[in-house]
# Entry
Amino acid sequence: MQESAKNMEPVWPSIMALIAVGGLYFALPPSLSIFPRWTVLVLTALTLVPAELFHRSGRHTMCRIMSYATISIVTVAMIVSLILLVEAIPKHIESPVGLLRSAMALWATNVLVFAVWYWRLDGGGPHQRDARQGHTDGAFLFPQMTILPTAENAAQRQSWSPRFVDYLFLAFNTSTALSPTDVPVLSRWAKGLMMIQATISLAVVALLAARAVNIL
# Structure
């Protein structure tokens, strides 16, 4: 029973994050979406439900496929909305307040989406990470992985494994500092994803700054 609870623990935060992304997308004005605003939220719910059922039944491969489909849908929707946001500024389609609100929503969406990507891909995914005794190898070098295995902390280091909040913290730092902070990046795919996330964040922040200057 204890092992089952351990395996289930990382799943719900990611589900809540993706639902939050759907909610943020729903808050965008219609001009910043090529689909009805409720589409992302509905598609997210429709794909997450079978993914959770596959996870509970032990069909983790199908769970990963459904999860990848969900994250991909949300990522594409976010990038399309960012492009539409850039095009909307010179056209003055939306009010300044609406543009700023949309930019902040996209910035938050960027953090949540890439947190889920890192959580899903690092170390083979949450199921494989939980199946191992500890997290000693992965795409990111967390500070806990660098602690020397002395007698005082050996047991704690061997049992440590990153949870969703660790990847959320990593994604938040990437969007704010536009670079890694306390977690070095080791793999090429992770470096590529972080470059994309930082680029999106920089574009949104630049839009916010440019709009603020125009308002002043």
Summary: The chain has a mean pLDDT of 77.
